[in-house]
Records
---
Amino acid sequence: MLEVRGVQKAFDGFQAVAGVSLAVARGEIAAIIGPNGAGKTTLFNLVTGHLRPDAGAVLLEGRDITGLPPHQVCRLGMGRSFQRTNIFPRLSVFQNVQAAFISHRGRGLDLLSRVDRLYRDEAEALLASLGLLERAGEMSGFLSHGAQKQLELGIALASEPKLLLLDEPTAGMSATETHETIRLISRIARERDLTLLFTEHDMDVVFSIAQRITVLHQGHVIAEGAPAEVRSDPEVRRVYLGERR
Amino acid sequence: MSALRRAPWGLLAAVAALAVPLVGSRFYTFVATDVAIMALFAVSLNLLLGYTGLVSFGHAAYFGVGAYTTGLLMKKAGVAFLLAFPAAGVLAGLCALVFGFFCVRLTKIYFAMLTLAFAQIVWAICFKWNDVTGGEQGMPEIPYPDLAWMERLPVVGDLRTSDHFHLLTVVVVALCFWLLRRIVGSPFGRILTTIRENPERAEFIGVHVRRWELLAFVLSGAFAGLAGALFGIFNRGVFPDFVYWTKSSEVLIMTILGGMGYFYGPAVGALVLLVLNQQITSYTEYWPFVLGTILIVLLFAFPGGIVGALDAGCRRLAGLRRA
Amino acid sequence: MPDPSFLFAQALSGLTAAMFLFLIASGLTLIFGVLRVLNFAHGSFYMLGAYMAFQVVRWLGREPSSFWWAALGAAVGVAVLGGVVERLLLRHLYDKEELYQLLFTYALVLILSDAAKVLWGTGQLSVSRPPGLAGAFRFFGTTIPYYNLFILLLGPAIALLFWLALTRTRRGRFIRAAALDREMLGALGVNVSGLYTGVFVLGSFLAGLGGALVTPVKAIVPGMDVEIIVEAFIVVVIGGLGSFWGTFLGALIYGQVLSFGILIFPRFSIFSVFALMAVVLILRPWGLLGRPLKT
């Protein structure tokens, strides 16, 4: 589904991502972990088109998408949630999701139809599956942090992606919220046959649902594989726990 | 939602505006026409400002282009209003397309400064191109459109030409408002608000932000051009100060004064500002001082503008009543 | 081939204009760099500096030193005004949209320009050169007033002084850090709001000083606030908004453009000035020495 080949990115001489390669198969749930500053978010930005790699390539379903602008990458079937919650604060919960449908279904240039009830059914169905239907009329900026993250997931899903990138989906959440979010994400991934790639700090989360883990450190991949392998990898343990051999 | 919010304010305002000439005062009609035109100008800016989140310091450029287009066509080429008027919108829209193309590649203060620079370039051209634009003297004596057919109408047939023009203006402005209302209430309009709220997020629902911003820019400019065309005739002449940065600042203040979060906000702002201007300049020459003070009060106490303050007030009253 | 001494005279006049512009534009770029506010009222501060200098000279009479006291007094007066404005009013707008901050500074322009009219009328005023620098000398075929020489030396001197202050002192480093990441600075325990006031005061001081020092050379008239702010905008755009040396460079360049441009295109100022701004913004919006914008 997704293939990243040797991407590099430097900022003002600082090498944020130094030759990272990874692959995510269709239907897989993969995670990228690493300490702060390892380059996880930069890598995401390179994949989604927010940043242009200095070298390397990104392929989505075999198609080279390196350097394409984000809106085109989105249209090719990639969805994303951001680290800092990215919603449309002064639009209602319903309107947030509706906008995504409008854009995805190509109605963005419709200047004369009335937008009030457009895609109402689809939006409400989506909100229901996320547990946000009762809040549909509320202004999204006033929602709790957890609800906003769920809404953001909804916005990403409305574009009917095949691959979903989640940047720290449980950041700032309590244990209960985290648990619920993870359950929601895995259920949605199953229901919609999504491929998932996410970054996380919470190791419990990662080891509970990831089928494949890539470990990043200072812009390099230092380990990759199934959770059990990664967990016992000495290099990983050294980086995370400061253990010496 | 209270009944107050659902009242057809636009319709009521249009009817009231149409009735003004019947009062018989030349002055009131004059002010009402002025307000109607500036209201259109301000609402056109708000498509860009309030709905797309783009701050333009040079909106007067398109207003001026529209005015000069219609003025030139009607005065020098004898073209009928029916053609000269839409031409203003088309030319202003084209101008916005060219300028906007460069502007939308920038953000925030850089965007604003480029809009200002372009507007001042247009002004310099109007000011200096004596042969075409009349230069510093402008183009006085723009003819009225052919309004003879109005004299055969009941009720309004006996009114003056300036009253007839007022009626025409109100109808045209109302039509433009209706169009603009449709646009902001359309899927396109919804996408614009996503750009305003969060351009990064909008990109990642598949919106080519720059393209939509350019579209908004062009539409906004076109309607401003239409307002300019009307103003040139109303003012009985087209002059370079239509394009000067002070005009841009005037319309920007109107938009915010009325409330950029509401469709009719800028229209209310236009009304209030023009009436205040009339009143205050008859007492003192220090209108800038008053305007500056009003602006400061607005920014600190009523950031949502007049309509915003009214809306909040109504909500509070409704809350009290329920409690 | 034009007369070399004529070219020299033009270049010199361009340099002198540049130094004045640098004084004002440096304050503008400093305020923008740290507070992220493009202070439209900066031109008004400049104008007030000029008027205040005039006033103080009038009070002190024809002493040899009265001009210098006036310049200092005007700069300090404007700085105080800036501090009051920032502390009492502007700071409450920091969490609001940028547009509100810009409109606030515009409102100040309106208010201050009328205030000046009320206090000093609408006529032209002027201040004579300080007795110590009254004469002129000939050099390379041109007459150079001593006062202009003083300005030519003062400009780079102030630039150097500020550069040293920004790079060598603790406060200076804070200022530069705030321009890069104010949240981080606040998290480190630095009094960011005090820093903001300080920067605004400093910028205003520079504007007031510039206005005061220009009085022997230019007439004090209403409208000088708008005239200078437009030129200051162009200078900071060319040099790069927020860049100190960029402003210096921009001022130098623009000074020469002004000087020689009028010769090549008689109808120069109004069109070409904004065309220049537009060209820079289109091709290289971050100016010569600014930081490239994030796309």
---
Amino acid sequence: MIKKRKIRILVAKPGLDGHDRGARIIARAYRDAGFEVVYSGLHQTPEEVVRAAIQEDVDMIGLSSLAGAHMYLFPRVVELLQENGADDIVVCGGGIFPEDDISKLKKAGIKELFTPGTPLDEVVEWVEENVNPRGS
Amino acid sequence: MKIAEKIISGDIRSVARLIRDIDDNVPGAREVLKDLYPSTGKAYVIGITGSPGVGKSTLVDQMVTHLRSAGKTVGVLAVDPTSPFTGGAILGDRVRMQRHSMDEGVFIRSMATRGYFGGITQSTRSAIDVLDAMGKDCIIVETVGVGQDEVDIVQSAHTTIIVLVPGMGDDVQALKAGILEIGNIFVVNKDDREGADRTVSDIRLMIEMDEKRYKDGWKPPILTAQAVFDKGVKEILDEIDKHRNHLKSSAQIQSMRKYEKARNDLSEMIKDKIIHDVFNEIINSGEFETTLQSIVKGEVDPYTACDAIVLKKLKTGTP
């Protein structure tokens, strides 16, 4: 097929966290892997993230958080996706998370969490294995 | 409920999904577009183009605010280039517009050009139709105006705005090469920068020299702005209104526009469909690859190969 469906990803930074270097590097890695990446910028509320994800019809949301508010922000995004009937969108997260939090976040519906030092290849491979473009 | 009905009733998910299907060339999408077509033609379409970094997204963001306070609903299509090497894209125009994301009256969608199988012109046009059918009063299409495709996109707008910044001499050069014709309004953004006057007079000179081009009676105004501070934005919207009234003012202009739009739409659609169908078939059948191999080996020249393929496909009539 000449036009297989493309994976579309929203990379978002929820909360009052201004450290977007990581999110940008991930966005680039996704682009270089051939994905379409929508980057929505800093200081987003979970509501804004979910709205953007729905309007953009993405297959996955990558949340970045380095400021410690992930225990509220990440599950809230999952919750809002459910409320909007959009829980087919896969959510994963990247940033600094204590061990204990990781298992709790996974239980809350965040499919995978990546911590500092994860090679970019691994992050990209995970998407290829766990995210299917819509309709395929 | 049929998808088309959901879209006409304004269902966000159906709209978002259909635009995705159009982009991915899903056959069913075409059928929905056929159903939607009778509900299109009501929205006012504004095209915004200019080099990267001139402030298009910021300007769009401000325009959306103004249009919303005037009670109008708005759709935004922000087109960014696909990397020709990886096929991926980073679509960052939303960053400047995020404050509208909680507003029910605004629908923002980022689109990638998706490269060489043509189509961006077509999928953007179709996306305009979708937002039109969902009932948006105003649709703003933002593109980096550097290629033919992008020029074509803005050409399907009612009013096209070209954004420049001071001190980009080459920009004005680029205008000479072709996009001057498509501008209905020129905006020199970031006008606090040195050289703003110079840029304005450069554009003015070009417009004056080309007076005969504006035979329909609309001479493009040149405005200055600082979009980030909302300076000059209201004036831009006023000019858009004037241009809109101008288009409405004569039956001749209206019928000419209608004809031009139909001509553009249809020729693009035909091109697109032929390219897509022919490519689909020869790639799936392996003919594309074998022909490539013969060209590489020197068994055939590309001209002959191309003629053979196209002739055969057109005769057999690919569905």
---
Amino acid sequence: MKKQTMLIVTVRASDAVEGCGGVIAKYAAEGHHVELIVLSDAEGAKREPLLREVLKGLGVSALEFADRPGMPLEWSDEDCEWLACRFRSIRPDFIVTHAKEPDLRSPDRGYASAAVMKSYFIASAAGAPCEGLPVSPRQTPMFGLEPTHSEEIGWVPGVLIDVTPFLDQKMTAFDRLFPGDEHRRERCMEQMKNRAVHCSGRGGVTGCKFAEAFSSFGPIYAHGHFVW
Amino acid sequence: MEKQKMLVVCAHVGDFIWRSGGSIAKYAREGHEVTVIALTYGIRGESNGYWKRGGSSADECREIRRREGEEAARILGVSRIEFWDYQDYPLLMTDERIERLACKIREIRPDFILTHDKEPDPYNMDHNLASDALRTAYTIASGAGAVCNGLPVAPRQTPMFGFEPHMTEISSFTPGIYIDITDVFEQKKQAMACCTTQANMSAHYIRKAEIRASECANRGGVSGCRYAEAFSTWGAVCMHGHFVW
């Protein structure tokens, strides 16, 4: 497998750990390049050193904080132009962000996803200046993190990824960000266990004990076959 | 890539040609095993070209449709085609027929199945009847307590993909996967040309393949794709373990 660049864009840095920490560790272990852009300042400047340390430990090689006001997320047209330039500069093979369905309980997540899509739209327009950076391809695939209440927002899993070997790495990072938050930890674990049941029992991935699920924003083109 | 078994179940003989002929030819060319089950010949409702001829009869229609189906299957490289010769318009899938299909699934043990989409097609209820019957049959095949002539139980997770219907939007079809069929498109054209009883279909399905190819190339990054077929996906992708592959 060719080395890829995975770009994650989330409201908070902790969203990436909770939603796709296992996949970050997996991609990093396989030698892929993983970058994270955090849109809001909701976690506070004081936490930044800890977040940097934890994300780096998980395998994120570049972490940027856009530091826009959160709750609600304020993301202006200029911010979209800025993010478009970042897309052109990073040239990711694929992007992971929040689900594209509006999230009633965490509206910032829906706003972030919409901002990513709008910014990508700009990045792929040859006539948008973006500091003279080469235009982005039209076809970069995007995937949505599993929300806390999937059915409520109409989220549907499109890809399940076995993260069993990377569970410890993920939960070590998780515990540093949410020490003592047993409820949150349990929910995170239970969700991964349930997805693993789907991944092994319905997906035929034997030995899968923990999995992370993502929605896919578009159809599959690149493989050229049905089952792979 | 490991050799796989592809099972195609269609309502009428022509369906496997228009809706999946390119993918069948591609898999066959790569050495995979392709089985086609045509539940009906489409004598009543899908042979309108034939019924315009003089002196038409159901028996002659059956013969012609069988020859057309066999010839198309030969051109595409199908390993085995079965004609179950049920009545069409409407297709009637009794419990017994569904059990027969379940046993057939256990016998073949396909790696994946192509059939009509699971969303309602308001223009062709046979397509939905076939799709529903296939899913019921698969449920039976994967139930360890179902008898099915003592054949080993089918796994729960066999992936299924839905054909693109004639009118996509009104049938709520959403493409989930595109297959580039550029290299085998001549075979698909020849196979479609076999179907003299539905001669009006070819041009439409050539255009569809061109449109799907432009999406596959420009939105999917499959450069050089000039012809493609689209299918819906019914389940999440688990097997690959990565996002982009």
